[in-house]
């Protein structure tokens, strides 16, 4: 007992106090075997024809990185970079090779020094480097075995072209007001692209410290995760910036930029220096972002009661950027429209978007950067939490934006895809880079956030907050998995609450609803695994019979009805633990019940005329009211709609129609009307080229895409492919918009089919834009012929080795559309009195 207690205290001490900076006690499980020595015959073949000593996609854990010294010199004229690194590694188990990730890098030289070599300044021993591009790995073969528990230093010289796309260390260009095209170099690594910029252990569990040096011309500046310590002059008038060493972090969060940007700065209450960077002509659009990021940083530091651990935080608007933003620790990068706000041309919804994106990326500085998921199968721990924290932080910092109503759109949005059979569980295996990239979808972001919001409502805000702070403190500078979160939420005592034996006495005195649940031995994990391991969303069917409230749960499937032959099979083995809430006509109180079986009956405390389930739409379930349930609610709404709270009314409309995601901006509509004449369209295109505001550009591009003239739509696509007037980064949203236009539907789809290889030259197959292009140009189809055509196309891609989950989603959506039409066409015909 005494021993256990000491161990517990030691654990807490090691994880919360010592480990963050210096403990090398690692989270790796048993180290893997040297497969090579056991059976060298069955190994993959390296590029030089020799056997490559490792066959797994995941790296071995015998050697782990502690510290990277990284030097990078990009040349923005020749568009390439030379670089070198020294990785200090710890050998956990004797081995004869080191496996690293490296993708598209030319390795010039690799050497190894032991601690002794370093002490006596003995030069490094040259290593044999093997490359296995299919796994984006290199193997460094050592002449003599590396010994367990010793540290070594691996030095590698390498070079590459600055990437053409939006990943790794890539080039981005922008035009100045004077018409000059300028180039900058920028990184974007998540999830698996750090390996394109430097050989590394490119998995989230391999956290290390990074000391970065960047050589540049004097007309440029260099930025990285940490503040600059000094600048050294080098030959040829070049300058070299040395940055402070980072905290322990994953490779996907490393970032550096060489550019000529201008900035505004301010200081947060805690003393952290916050700066917003943009290209010089757009400097005047940076001020709102500074105000918002200072407010939000203050909010998060207070809310989590954990300091943002770096001395500075830069937010940079990048002219070419694939996603909306990226949370690199201390150097957050944004698409221009996600950071810049021009009061003259940006609308309230643009401001909301900028605020939301900043809130999201700053939340990642804790959820994701400080505590990282062990592996990409749990990416929802990053993205779901960042999306959930948008709600918490924006509600407090910008209450006038009424973000809690907007948050509901996340849930309504994801319900559309989660109610298809092709959906997936929140936690799902992902091994290849393509599978990993595909995890960044609405299920991780939006379902993740909605589940957290449901759990907060179930546990109470106070208990939930305490639990997540416990989780953040316990796993700081480390990695966590789902179960770690659930146990932190079950036993959300802070270390200071511990008296003895690991029990939290302070809680047992309270008598909240939550504790009633907990006293009945309700485990957060038991509830939550029904939501994270099963795909889909439950439908709660409720029938009020006098004082009895009969509840039933089933799996909700859009377009599959009880009389469909497959209905039964699709329901099998699905069961959720649903935190049901309800209010009634006779009291304002929120009643709670945990529905853990298929059916249940509750007794209402009083006679009531109506019952409304899912109070404030906090639960992730759809409700159907049987018997007179709907009629009674409609009667209340007709009589006095304010008897139901706004979010309850929104939820009722959603549940009744199962659709809502938004009225278009007035300005967008005005532009779209203008775009219907040739003069108007040409004028708008000209304005598009001239506009400095990304928000305005978005609206103009949308308007241009609504033209009824196909030759104009073709011109837009050509411009998007060319990438000068319309940037290639915007091609996906352009094709999406064109496919919404009845005159553009077929055109967009034909374009995708005919230009598939050209598209792949610009975007990776599994990238977000490519998935938008595929689904955006197909999922509105509703005939069997169209289904067949799309199917054949996907099959032809599959035979060439390209497969994406989105193919299945599209096919299922089209089938659903066909079914819906078959079912409803006769009544639609009747109703409209026209023949279609
Ligand atoms: N971590 C992501 C960026 C990302 C997206 C990396 C996809 C790898 C693949 C970032 O935090 C993010 O979520 N960005 C969002 C914007 C956000 C406000 C929802 C994006 O890029 O859409
Ligand atoms: Zn995110």
TrEMBL record:
Q: Where is this site: Transition state stabilizer?
A: 445
Q: Where is the active site?
A: 361 (proton acceptor)
Q: Where in the cell is it found?
A: Endoplasmic reticulum membrane
Q: Where does Zn(2+) bind?
A: 360, 364, 383
For the keyword Signal, the answer is yes
**GO CC list:** endoplasmic reticulum membrane
Give the enzyme class.
hydrolase
Which Gene Ontology molecular function entries are recorded, alphabetically? aminopeptidase activity; metallopeptidase activity; zinc ion binding
Q: How does it sit in the membrane?
A: Single-pass type II membrane protein
Details of cofactor binding? Binds 1 zinc ion per subunit.
InterPro entries per record? Aminopeptidase_N-like_N, Aminopeptidase_N-like_N_sf, ERAP1-like_C_dom, M1_APN-typ, Peptidase_M1, Peptidase_M1_aminopeptidases, Peptidase_M1_dom, Peptidase_M4/M1_CTD_sf
Does DNA damage count among this protein's keywords?
A: no
- The secretion signal range is 1-25
Boundaries of every Peptidase M1 membrane alanine aminopeptidase domain copy: 288-492
Coarsely, its chief localization is: endoplasmic reticulum
Q: Where is the Aminopeptidase N-like N-terminal domain positioned along the sequence?
A: 65-253
Domain ERAP1-like C-terminal as annotated: residue spans? 610-660, 662-814
Give the keywords, sorted.
Answer: Adaptive immunity, Aminopeptidase, Disulfide bond, Endoplasmic reticulum, Glycoprotein, Hydrolase, Immunity, Membrane, Metal-binding, Metalloprotease, Protease, Signal, Signal-anchor, Transmembrane, Transmembrane helix, Zinc
Enzyme Commission code(s) on record: 3.4.11.-
Which co-factor is required? Zn(2+)
The Gene Ontology biological process annotation of the record reads: adaptive immune response; proteolysis
Q: Assembly and interactions?
A: Heterodimer with ERAP1.
What this protein is reported to do is described as: Aminopeptidase that plays a central role in peptide trimming, a step required for the generation of most HLA class I-binding peptides. Peptide trimming is essential to customize longer precursor peptides to fit them to the correct length required for presentation on MHC class I molecules. Preferentially hydrolyzes the basic residues Arg and Lys.
Tell me its family. Answer: Belongs to the peptidase M1 family.
UniProt name for this protein: Aminopeptidase
What is the organism of origin for this protein? Sus scrofa (Pig)
């Amino acid at each position: 007992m005494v021993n256990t207690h000491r161990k517990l205290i030691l654990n807490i001490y090691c994880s919360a106090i010592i480990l963050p900076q210096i403990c090398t006690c690692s989270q790796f499980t048993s180290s893997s075997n040297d497969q090579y020595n056991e059976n060298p015959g069955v190994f993959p073949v390296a590029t030089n024809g020799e056997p490559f000593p490792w066959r797994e996609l995941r790296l071995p854990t015998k050697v782990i990185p502690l510290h990277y010294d990284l030097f990078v010199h990009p040349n923005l004229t020749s568009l390439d970079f030379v670089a070198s690194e020294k990785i200090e590694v710890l050998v956990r188990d004797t081995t004869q090779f080191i496996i690293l990730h490296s993708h598209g890098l030319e390795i010039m030289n690799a050497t190894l020094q032991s601690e002794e070599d370093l002490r006596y300044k003995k030069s490094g021993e040259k290593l044999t480097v093997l490359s296995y591009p299919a796994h984006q790995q290199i193997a460094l073969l050592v002449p003599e075995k590396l010994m367990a528990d010793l540290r070594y230093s691996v030095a590698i010289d390498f070079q590459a072209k600055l990437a053409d796309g939006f990943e790794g260390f890539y080039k981005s260009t922008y035009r100045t007001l004077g018409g000059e095209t300028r180039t900058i170099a920028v990184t974007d690594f998540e999830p698996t692209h750090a390996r394109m910029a430097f050989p590394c252990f490119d998995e989230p569990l391999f956290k290390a410290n990074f000391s970065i040096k960047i050589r540049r011309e004097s007309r440029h500046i260099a930025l990285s995760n940490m503040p600059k310590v000094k600048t050294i002059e080098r030959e040829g008038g070049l300058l070299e910036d040395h940055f402070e060493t980072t905290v322990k972090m994953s490779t996907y969060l490393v970032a550096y930029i060489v550019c000529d940007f201008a900035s505004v700065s301010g200081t947060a209450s805690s003393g952290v220096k916050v700066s917003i960077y943009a290209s010089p002509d757009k400097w005047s659009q940076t001020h709102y972002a500074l105000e918002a990021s200072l407010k939000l940083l203050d909010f998060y530091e207070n809310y989590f009661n954990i300091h943002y651990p770096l001395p500075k935080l830069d937010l940079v608007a990048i002219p070419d950027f694939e996603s909306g933003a990226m949370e690199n620790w201390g150097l957050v990068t944004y698409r221009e429209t996600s950071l810049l706000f021009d009061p003259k041309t940006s609308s309230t919804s643009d401001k909301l978007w900028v605020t939301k994106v900043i809130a999201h990326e700053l939340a990642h500085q804790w959820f994701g950067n400080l505590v990282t998921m062990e592996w990409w199968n749990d990416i929802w721990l990053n993205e779901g939490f960042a999306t959930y924290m948008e709600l918490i932080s924006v509600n407090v910092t910008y209450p006038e934006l009424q973000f809690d109503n907007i948050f509901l759109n996340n849930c309504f949005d994801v319900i559309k895809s989660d109610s298809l059979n092709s959906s997936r569980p929140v936690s799902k295996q992902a091994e290849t880079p393509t599978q990993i990239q595909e995890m960044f979808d609405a299920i991780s972001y939006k379902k993740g956030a909605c589940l957290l919001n449901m759990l907060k409502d179930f546990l109470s805000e106070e208990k939930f907050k305490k639990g997540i702070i416990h989780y953040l403190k316990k796993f700081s500078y480390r990695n966590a998995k789902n179960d770690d979160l659930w146990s932190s939420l079950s036993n959300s005592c802070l270390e200071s609450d511990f008296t003895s034996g690991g029990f939290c006495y302070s809680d047992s005195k309270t008598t909240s609803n939550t504790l009633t649940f907990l006293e009945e031995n309700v485990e957060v994990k038991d509830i939550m695994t029904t939501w994270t391991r099963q795909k889909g969303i439950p439908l709660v069917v409720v029938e009020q019979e006098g004082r009895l409230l009969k509840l039933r749960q089933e799996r909700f499937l859009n377009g599959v009805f009880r009389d469909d032959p497959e209905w039964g099979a699709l329901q099998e083995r699905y069961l959720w633990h649903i935190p049901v809430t309800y209010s009634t006509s006779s009291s304002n109180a929120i009643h709670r019940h945990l529905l853990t079986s298929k059916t249940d009956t509750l007794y209402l405390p009083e006679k009531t005329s109506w019952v409304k389930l899912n109070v404030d739409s906090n639960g992730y379930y759809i409700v159907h009211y049987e018997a007179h349930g709907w009629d009674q609610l409609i009667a209340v709404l007709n009589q006095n709609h304010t008897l139901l709270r706004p979010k309850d009314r929104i939820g009722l409309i959603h549940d009744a129609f199962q659709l809502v995601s938004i009225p278009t901006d007035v300005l967008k509509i005005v532009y779209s009307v203008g775009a219907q004449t040739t003069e108007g369209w040409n004028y708008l295109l000209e304005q598009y080229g001239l506009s400095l505001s990304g928000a305005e550009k978005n609206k103009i591009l949308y308007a241009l895409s609504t033209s009824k003239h196909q030759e104009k739509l073709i011109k837009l696509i050509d411009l998007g492919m060319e990438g000068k007037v319309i940037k290639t980064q915007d091609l996906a949203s352009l094709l999406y918009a064109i496919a919404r236009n009845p005159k553009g539907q077929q055109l967009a789809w034909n374009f995708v089919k005919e230009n598939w290889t050209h598209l792949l030259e610009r975007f990776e197959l599994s990238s977000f834009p490519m998935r938008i292009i595929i689904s955006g140009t197909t999922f509105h189809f509703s005939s069997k012929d169209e289904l067949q055509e799309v199917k054949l196309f996907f099959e032809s891609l599959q035979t060439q080795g390209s497969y994406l989950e989105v193919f299945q989603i599209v096919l299922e959506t089209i089938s659903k559309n066909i079914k819906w039409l078959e079912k409803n066409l006769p009544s639609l015909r009747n109703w409209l009195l026209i023949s279609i």
